[in-house]
Structure to design on (185 residues):
């Protein structure tokens, strides 16, 4: 009982009376890097969050757009644009005057960890030939940015294996590495 009271008391002194968010991690697709976390409360509606990020070796910076937010994710793509770098992000819960400890993501390297979408595939058949067109995924870019170079295909040196199944002969033909050129739509 005493220890419980004491820790509550210490919590009040520190101002950190809330449990921290958990499961703080980056989810990333095509180099769009979004921090996600789990609310410490069942009733998520009354909870606010504040997010900071840092480049490995530097100090924490506020993510201005993610101060006192109610959603449980925060897009940090602009802050993690250098895909070869290593990043951390952390989040705390805020409710009125009280707040939680920070909880931190593990070290995140965009190039090493992002997931790449499948290409879109278009097939155009004529009597004696077929043309297969792949459109590789586009790199994430913020709304007001014009297309960025290099493309995902260049960054990851993406190669695609193509196989064609012939329904009549029931045979599959495999093409070896097909190197795509990036294509703006
Ligand atoms: C951070 O989250 C993990 C689970 O993802 C949890 O085990 C840990 O206790 C949390 N840290 C704090 C300070 O609450
Ligand atoms: C990549 O996709 C897998 C499978 O859906 C998922 O488990 C993983 O968390 C994703 N990684 C990132 C960094 O988004
Ligand atoms: C977030 O909320 C706290 C406490 O309510 C307040 O002091 C702080 O100024 C707010 N920050 C922003 C960026 O709105
Ligand atoms: C394809 O074959 C059809 C019927 O055999 C023929 O009418 C048509 O002209 C051919 N098209 C081309 C582009 O060769
Ligand atoms: C792609 O093709 C190459 C060469 O034919 C082969 O070595 C490789 O295993 C294939 N990869 C997959 C994922 O099928």
């Amino acid at each position: 009982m005493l220890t419980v009271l004491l820790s509550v008391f210490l919590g009040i002194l520190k101002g950190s009376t809330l449990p921290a968010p958990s499961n703080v991690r980056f989810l990333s697709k095509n180099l769009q890097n979004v921090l996600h976390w789990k609310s410490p409360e069942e009733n998520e509606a009354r909870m606010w969050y504040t997010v900071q990020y840092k480049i490995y070796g530097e100090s924490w910076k506020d993510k201005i757009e993610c101060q006192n937010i109610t959603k449980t994710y925060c897009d940090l793509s602009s802050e993690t644009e250098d895909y070869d770098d290593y990043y951390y992000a952390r989040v705390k819960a805020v409710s009125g005057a009280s707040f939680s400890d920070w909880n931190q993501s593990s070290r995140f390297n965009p190039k090493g960890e992002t997931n790449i979408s499948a290409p879109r595939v278009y097939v155009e058949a004529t009597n004696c030939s077929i043309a297969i067109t792949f459109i590789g995924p586009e790199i994430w870019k913020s709304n007001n940015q014009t297309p960025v170079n290099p493309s995902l295909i260049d960054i990851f040196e993406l190669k695609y294996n193509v196989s064609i199944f012939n329904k009549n002969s029931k045979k599959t033909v495999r093409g070896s590495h097909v190197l795509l050129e990036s294509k703006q739509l």
